[in-house]
Target: CCHC-type domain-containing protein
Amino acid sequence: MEHSSSTSSATKELASLAMISGMDPDQLLELEGVESGSEPFVAENLKESEKPVEAVQESLSQEWMNEGDDGWGEEMEVNESDGESHCSDGGDLKRKRRKGVEEGPKIRVYVVVQVQRAHVIIAPVGKANESWPQFVMLRDDLPSAAAGDRRLQFGDVMELVEFEWRDGFAKLRNLSDDGNEKFWINNGQITAQATAVTVNIINLKIPSPSVGVILEVNYGVGSHVKSITVISPLLRLRQRIYPHQFLGEFNELSAVLGAVVLLDTVKLTRPAQWRIGLGYILPRSSTFFIGDERFAHQPVVAVGICLSPIQHQFPFRSDHGIELIKQGEEVMAAGVAACADRQEGELARFTVFVTPSAIEPKRESAILDVKCHWEWKEELVDMCKIWKQDQPIHMHLAGKIGAKPCGHGYVMSVKREELQFSYALSAQIFVLFQEAKNYNAWDDWNLIMGGKVQIKLKPLQSMNIFKDRINFFTDHQPTMMASETSPRGRILSIMLARSDQTNEPGISWDELAKRPELSRLVAGQKDTARLMLDNVPRICKMQAPPGTGKTDVATRIMLSILKENDEARALFIAPMNVAVVRAVQQMAENMEEVRWRERMLALFAGTGKAKYREEIAHIGSHLLASAVSAPQLLDTLDEEKKKVVARYVKACQDTPKMANEGKVVEILMAKEKRRLVFCTLSLAEQLGGLFSDFDYVFLDEAGQASTVQVLSMLSKFPGMKKLLITGDEHQLGVNLREVPEAVRDKCGLDTVLENLRVAEAVDKTVLSVNFRSHPVITECVEAAAYAPHGMQLIPGRSADQMNMLSGLTGIRLPSPGIPLILINQDSPMQPDPTSFSQSNAGQTMTVMALLEQLKSRFPGTIRVVCLYAGQAAEIGLMVAERINEDGEEGWGEIMITTSDGTQGHESDLVLVVTTSAGGGVHSDAFWNHPRRVNVALNRPRHGLIVIGDLIHLWRAEGVWKRFFEKAIKSTTVVGANYANLMFHRHAHHLNGKLVGADGLPVKALEFYDAIFKNPFPSNPSNSQGFRPNFGGSVVRGAGGPFRRARAQRGFARGMSGRGPLCWNCNGVGHVLSDCPTRRGGKGQNQTSRQRGGR
Model:
């Protein structure tokens, strides 16, 4: 067979080359057979599986070996005599050419670019030649295509000797081209122009195993698996695998979303440059492409899938073997690769070509207004996930071949619109001129600034952090570092559950109590201090619900360490900018308390400095810009570094989003030894090398830090001796909505607290005293979110200390002295027209009515927390309108956020807007997620108002029902009209309950009737429950004055059966036009008190 002769020829040539070079021929042959630089460890375990791995020796023809990497961009061909020597039967030249086309070279080199059911598609390696087809079908049963005991696969190379054109397929076109020719690809399958008759196999790739994860399972007719989409740390992008690529015992039943599998992969070395598609590969020289392919240099692609020899388990436990841990590292790398693939795909998808509608140019900067149109709402929503405020962008001149970026900037604002037949995203963008190497970018800039020119706007995100993490885990660096005998090795071994031994604290509380900075610690806070202040390397995990003083404890321990040890260095890290600000402020207070000083340095990302400008301004003296502006530092810098610092300081003042910390931090740390640094988690991971000498690391809000990110970050701290991780397992964790569903679980992409919870060698402490909230609020939050897990949340403040709302002059609370207001309102919710969120106009108007009453009376901070983003947007727009009408006084200080965006924040008074109303009962609904609800409910210090369809929330069971069960023992549920009574001069308390101007109780009777008489109409067997004593009889139909705002028509009434309400005198039973106090007493004579005989 021709293949055998080629193999023999290539072997002889390699042997000759080895002799000339003075190398061992066997060694050279062995090196030539290796396709990847490093194989995953699972290759060592293949003997344990039953999957046979047959190594197919690569063979190289003389022509193949004579071509170097640089030659593969050129057309490869041989002369006619050479071609005849490689053809088994000589062939018929007429079969190789289409009528009317001049005959070309007799033999050409092709490569497999797609594997289909009964054949493969091959494409030329070099440049296009009209005499030869771009895509050729090569049947599996073609004798000259035999590849031993396997099919041909991606990257296999051959000489095409004979082919036949397919009628009607000689010419193909790209999807974007006009014409009558057939498309080159149809439903993911490449269209062949010709059929191969004779080939000579030149090079067969040897597959290497790689751990992968199934991202999607696609079903076809009859619910059979049509294809599987997989990812591996080695792949350039996710790849589609078809049933004919299933290997060994892998079958349709093995195709499970998120399953860990073993992929056969090959590295494409020649040609070196490729376009990689979802189910195909193309040499970069190919004239056919869709446009969403990824460019890659010598990429790795999957050619088959089989079962993994090791059952994946995560989180790690002490009884897991090293093989399972190492495979887990590769699974984490695959999870990161899936995130990188998705992010890169979305960035390319939403690179847009637009013509700015308005331009405000300066010499080297401008503000652009652009608008993008989409046919489907899904596209608009997906674009908004990328195109959001502060998103960095690059600007190119469109339509110019080889154009380089001439500007960079960020998205200032985004607005979504619903049009008659489409959707639109309008964005305002700030751009700065950007120079380009060996390119005149200034001409492009001036052309764009002239207007009416189409531009290309590309959203930016560095992919380097993904690549670094992938390499970190595929190289098994965590397990290698965990084997070290250093303190860092001990800490990483604990993280990976390689140790199951904990050590008792080496210092007693009696010794620590003498330190003034620690004297105020209580209960679990003391335990944490003992663990962190001895000399034993360890991880201490502090479970800390909101308000329990975790930031105060961490900063006091840091302060004590620095005071006692002049050589110690402490690094405080948090995922959120606001948590870093809070820690700096807390440390400053603690230093002031003990009259001790240490310079602090606070580092933030550029977007953080802009977004939290007001909060960060409070710690301005500790910012990097202040530190590098000190004269004593500037005097020590050379001119180049002074320019770097000057540019950074100017950017912080003018365009903080564009300020880059990296180089400037390096300049500062090289000149000064900073012992106390605060920074965000992302910066700590990127700049970790600058903190290699820090021995004490404190990670706050760890619930929002993933295992892969924490492990990657900790590897940058070789001097680390202690690690304190604080967080709350019962609040929101890592935002997984942008993570592919298949890798959200068991891939290390969720909170690191999940890993630490089961790691036996982690020292664990619990804080349970809440110093933030009013005691009634604390007790309700405990019942809702913590008691089900066997945890306590003990009030640490008295009611008298937290009386900003309850002690407010003139306020009429539903229950006296209880700053907890529950408003039942079942007004319907509406879908947001430009997203998949929801809003509730009735609840919006109730919020506005409450804010109108409170904004000028309540002395503290007010925050509106919405479970739905659409609700937050609606309320935000209304508040903005009031600011435009009335000015910022009162309205400007009100904060409107979503529950997901408010973690880490707190306010004196919080209004929680639930939006959801009526409909089915869903215990696992978005608005009933226990962590999301917990975050919303535990933000307030002095007062909490909950607005929603409380009956609906109660019947959903879970966190809301537990909260209300506890809350209604202390307060009374009221209706939507309560805002009109909150400061009403005639409302008063009678027997501990609020009554209206008519002396009737202000109570949402429909709520009490529903939950006690018929709590579960669809399930009567569950209707029994506790029934608290409300103190006094409940009269059906009794209600306080009901003053319905004009904008609130259609609202659910807070009370029922009392007739209309007068807007003039608040009397019940008549309307304003009939009021006896108007028009000289000519209105209706019967007042509300006369009506009903009262």
In short: The CA atoms of residues 164 and 195 lie 5 Å apart. Residues 1-102, 1018-1059, 1078-1094 have pLDDT under 50 and may be disordered.
